[in-house]
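yo

u said u wanted the structure for the complex thing, so here. seqs first:
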Amino acid sequence: MEQRLADTIAQDLEELIFDGTYSDGDRLDEVKLADQFGVSRTPLREAFQRLALSGLVDLIPRRGAFVRQPGPVELMEMFEVMAELEAVCGRLAALRISDAALKELADANTRCQMAVDAGDPDIYYLENERFHRIIYNQSGNSFLEQEASKLHRRLKPFRRQQLRFRGRMSQSMSEHEDIVQALSDSDPEKTADALRSHVAVQGEKFHNLMSSLKSHAQVVSSSR
Amino acid sequence: MEQRLADTIAQDLEELIFDGTYSDGDRLDEVKLADQFGVSRTPLREAFQRLALSGLVDLIPRRGAFVRQPGPVELMEMFEVMAELEAVCGRLAALRISDAALKELADANTRCQMAVDAGDPDIYYLENERFHRIIYNQSGNSFLEQEASKLHRRLKPFRRQQLRFRGRMSQSMSEHEDIVQALSDSDPEKTADALRSHVAVQGEKFHNLMSSLKSHAQVVSSSR
DNA sequence: AAGTGCATTTTTGTATACAAAAAACTTGAC
DNA sequence: GTCAAGTTTTTTGTATACAAAAATGCACTT
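structre next:
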């Protein structure tokens, strides 16, 4: 029973922030949360440190912990970086990818296609994630893989939104095909460009969605 | 008087790890360090959380905190990512940079030149850092700026090593000139390429240094 | 002598206690 | 009624206390 509470609490808090239970600017009350989780303040404060460094929380000395959801501008910036990181992964992977991994990509894609046919965004999302992770991995640079995964995870709730656009799933599919083609051609620049625009489009779609809504908290909360 | 000890401790510990007081695999003894810093274990443990997330420390449940210096392979990976991040900064900055910033770059460069003439690596290092930070900033993407700065900071102790190579300072200088030229030409790709190779060279130099110190460790493309 | 099982010691993780700072509230002057 | 100074209440930051897990040591068996 006795295992790291601080760890699980950090994850739980992350969830609570992602799913919109806490929105931008909210203060995280130590005693209230400690009560809620049934623990003392100590593990909570350790969890806060983690959240602070991953950017989900602002830790203001002698003030407390405040959740910090990225605004529209920062989100666009993050998508831009994600696009570039994926492009780099692709450029490196084009020269380093194994035949086995290429086959895995193709498999993930056929499962994506099945999800498109079935009109199931959840399965599509799952397979899409696998697709991208394979490319991160095949960059042959595990530090890059980690960084890309980290940002990918952070953008997860927002990335997901754009699948709601009519036709986006099938468009995304054909982009995937292009990427696989470029990879099997071992063409670094073509792969990089394909991935960059594939991700950049997601950012743009999201931006469209944002500007059509008032509060992005709604967007986040509906992604659960 | 009473201000965040956890913060200062995290920084101090970082220093201690960077300057080699603690090396790879060493366990950080909570009570010993608490004694040493004259504080209790609580702020120390909070500091550990931070170090863990920035990758300097492995936090193994029920075991303790172990310092984790990147090995040669991981260092090369980090330099590769740094090179790509700087390239992205440059590509964006080429289109977005202000005249004022261009002038600042030129100024930093002349101060670099003065440092080269004086044979002062410390001043060179300082101005070089300023030079790069300006480019991060002029990418116009503050998230990217942050990420680049973070990695730059983490590579600091290793980056510095390569200035020891004979002639590296002046070579670095002329690369800086090329970068400024590409930026003032507003040429994204040329800027990106110039920055990428500028940083990649640092990684290679460092690699040379490593393999001349230790028994030649071959860097393989696919790890694990 | 090596290995195993148990008791002891260390060390980690969490709870609680306490001190200092910030926020909230009260009271009084204008 | 508003503002300000002082007082109370909350809340953060740190220290200490305690419980559980891991590490260590030691006797005992083979």
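Strands of chain A lie at 27-28, 57-60, 64-67. DSSP finds ten helices and three strands in chain A.
cya
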